[in-house]
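Section 3.1: Structural characterization of target chains.
Under the original work plan, the team committed to producing a structural model for every single-chain target entering the pipeline before any wet-lab resources were allocated. The record below documents one such target. The sequence was received from the expression subgroup and is listed exactly as submitted; it comprises 76 residues.
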Amino acid sequence: MSIDKQSDIAANLQIGPTTLGMVRIYVEAEGVDLPLDFEPEEAEEIAEELMAAAKLARNAADKSKDRKPKGKPRRG
C-alpha cells in the first residue's frame, strides 16, 4: 500500500508523554498494538511534518473543488 492510496483499515491513535520523557504514539487496530516512542525533538519534527502534510492536503482539496463544474452542463 502506498501513502497516497485510500484504506478501509480502522485504527485508534493515542499520543502522549511517557514516564521516561519520551513521546509515545500508540496505534491500535485489529490484531495490532504498536507503541512508537520518540525523543521530544523527534516528536516535534513529526508534528511539523503533520502540519505541512495537512496544509498540502487542504490545498489539494481546495484545488479539487475549484475544478468541479458548477451547475449542469448544457445540451445543444
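The helical segments are 40-67.
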